[in-house]
Amino acid sequence: MRAKLVSPILLLASWEIGVRLEWLDPRLVAPPSLVVTELWRLIESGDLVAALAVSLFRVVAGFLIAAVVGTALGVLMARIRAIELALDPLIELFRPVSPLALFPLFILWFGIGEASKVFIIAFACSFPIILNTYAGVRGIDPTFFKASRSLGASPWEVTHTVVLRGSLPHIFTGLRLGWGIALIVIVAAEMIGAVRGIGYMVLESQQTFRIPRVFGAILIIGFLGFVTDLGFRHLRRRMMPWYREARD
Predict the structure, then answer these.
(1) pTM for the predicted model, two decimal places
(2) CA atoms of 5 and 219, how far apart (whole Å)
C-alpha cells in the first residue's frame, strides 16, 4: 500500500514546485496548496458535501439499475440462444455510441430532472456488466451443469449454485468497469444539463475562472473513484477468497 502512494506524492510535489517556479502558468494551473485550501473552504461551507451527495445519488441509482438489468441480461444471453441472437446485434449497435450523444434525447424523454441523468448512467454502464456476465457464464465448464442436473437440482438451484457463483469473478469485473464509467458520465452529464452536482461545480468554477476550485473538484472525483475501487476489491476478496487477479 505504501508503494502505491509514492507516485501520487511525487506528482503533487512536482506539481507544486512547477507552479511555484512558474514552469507552469499559475493563472491556469493552481498549486496543490491552493487547491487544498479551496477544498477546505468548500467543506466548511457545505458546498462540497451537497454537490457530492447529489452526484452520488444519481450515480448509485443508475449503477444499481444497470447492475440488476445487466447481470440478468448477461445470464439470459449466455443460457438462451434465442435471447442472445435477439440482443447481441442491438448491444453491438449501441455500445460504441457515446452516452453524451444520446443525452439530449434522454432530456426530451425524461425531462431535465433526475430521471434523465439516472437513466443515461444506467445505459452507459450496463454494457460492460452485460458482456462480462455473458463471458463468465459461457466460460463455466458444462460438466457442472450436467452434474447439478443429475443430482436433481432445480433450475433456481442451478442458477444460484452454478451460474452465479461460477461467473461471479467476471460479474465483479463488469461492475468495477461499470462504476468507473458511471463516474465519468455523471460529471459530463451534470456539465450539460444540471445546476447541482460535482460536474456542475467544475463547469461553474471554470466559467468564473476559479481555477483552484476546478482542480479541487477534479481531485475529489479521482479520489472518489480510487476509494470506491478499493471497496470493490475488498468486497471481492471477502466474497471470493479463492479468486486472485494478477494485479493483486
Answers:
(1) 0.86
(2) 15
